[in-house]
TrEMBL record:
Alphabetic keyword roster: Hydrolase, Magnesium, Metal-binding
Protein name: 3'(2'),5-bisphosphonucleoside 3'(2')-phosphohydrolase
Catalytic reaction annotation: adenosine 3',5'-bisphosphate + H2O = AMP + phosphate
GO molecular function: 3'(2'),5'-bisphosphate nucleotidase activity
InterPro entries, sorted: CysQ/Inositol_MonoPase, Inositol_monoP_metal-BS, Inositol_monophosphatase-like
């Protein structure tokens, strides 16, 4: 079948295929722990980036790309369609041999994720914005935090809502824990880049979760400086209370 634009795959299919394919490649890099940690991280970043950039050049030659591992071409600021990619999110977790790492693939239009896919290859999971289930059911009373623990805003929310911390590496893995309904929230502050949270926010939004900056404003991508230091992803049922607890920090 040929799609509009002469494409063989829809944007959603392509995003999912890239997240899955780069994940398989990264599983191969880590196979058997044959390399040391530094080599695993460096090679994982570089190989996943090389494969993804060639796939996008071939499949969507007219689109702009912002990737953690590529030089930033500011032509993206005038582009209609901008892919925002983290070829390996959670590089340090990957190199330590944990299952907490992800591949992030998002296509943004006007700064908003249009189509997103996040793979957690070591957990055998793929989340895509066009197929993800709506998050529902009981609240869990848990919040995802990084390996290093809470930031102040995250701790304030946990204290106010009495949420128990669950330590998970990688922004994608933390966000997908909310999407799976394993935890109720993931609150980040203190620094991140657009590639760290764009595809996770795209999938989380499609799953019916609340996603915003800590001050409650809309998260906008494809900025001249692709620094996106804070955001909240949480169950809609607790969003008002979470934002109230975050007021002091925004
Ligand atoms: N304060 C900060 N400044 C910049 N990047 C940060 C950050 N805190 C977390 N990150 C990035 O967010 C991702 C998830 O981190 P964590 O597991 O600690 O939550 C990692 O991305 P990469 O692994 O893609 O470099 C990490 O580098
Ligand atoms: Mg990252």
């Amino acid at each position: 079948m040929t799609l509009p634009g002469g494409y063989r795959h829809s944007d959603a299919e392509l995003a999912a295929m890239i997240a899955e394919g780069a994940g398989q490649l990264l599983l191969g890099v880590g196979h058997g722990a044959l390399l040391d940690r530094r080599q695993l991280g460096d090679l994982g970043d570089a190989l996943a980036e090389a494969w993804i950039s060639r796939v996008l050049q071939r499949q969507r030659p007219g689109d702009a790309v912002l990737s953690e591992e590529a030089e930033d071409d500011l032509a993206r600021l005038a582009a209609d369609r901008v892919w925002i990619i983290d070829p390996l999110d959670g590089t340090s977790e990957f190199s330590r041999g944990t299952t907490h790492w992800a591949v992030h693939v998002a296509l943004t239009r006007n700064g908003i994720p249009d189509v997103s896919a996040v793979s957690l290859p070591a957990q055998g999971q793929l989340f895509r914005s066009d197929e993800v289930a709506q998050v529902g059911g009981e609240l869990t009373g848990r919040i995802a935090v990084s390996r290093f623990g809470h930031s102040y805003p995250s701790a304030a929310v946990a204290e106010r809502l009495r949420l128990q911390a669950v330590h998970i590496g990688s922004a994608g893995a933390k966000a997908m824990a909310v999407v799976r309904g394993d935890v109720d929230a993931y609150i980040h502050s203190g620094g991140q880049f657009e590639w760290d949270n764009c595809a996770p926010v795209g999938v989380a939004t499609a799953a019916g979760l609340h996603c915003s900056r800590l001050d409650g404003s809309t998260i906008v991508y494809n900025n001249p400086q692709p620094y996106l230091p804070d955001f909240v992803i949480c169950r809609k049922e607790i969003a008002d209370e979470v934002l109230e607890a975050l007021r002091y920090f925004s």
